[in-house]
What does this fold into?
Amino acid sequence: MADHSAAALPCGHTDAELLDVLTDSASPELAEHVRTCPHCQAELAELEAVWAPVQRAARIPVEPPHGLVERALMTVRGVRGGLGAAPVELTQDGGTLRIHPQAVVLLTRQLCAEILTRHPGTHLRGCVGDADEVQVDLAVRYLLPAALAEEVQQELAAALQDVLGAGAPAVWVRIADVEPPRTT
It folds into this structure.
């Protein structure tokens, strides 16, 4: 098989241009030239053999991984959620501090990420809610203890209580995904 680099064929055209013919994106002039040029026809035959598996693979429908769409939507809702909810109000010296529900969700996400650094094999999959209640979804490596969600929930609730005091939302933590064990 020929070297499919950027070198021009004797007629002046390149393999890249011939790939345009294979993908039906070539100009009508190039398509007409290829029909009559022996150099392009020979190179195109070689390229077709290489390109055929790519075209077959492109025709195979690909399903997104299980839970990907739900996790993406959960993340979007977590960031956009609580648009109509009341803010958390914290009384402090000099007045009341109002914290938007989105900020509460983002704070929960940040605190959870910090907590999970102490729990290897555990990853944050999603965080949604508002100023009153936040749901956290975790992915855990197979064979981690079942009580892990409750442990993370307690740590997260305590961390939110430290930051927001009485304005801390209720926290629900669940294991939403189990990942296979790592092979060594």
Q: What stands out?
A: The CA atoms of residues 33 and 40 lie 8 Å apart. The first helix runs from residue 15 to 22.
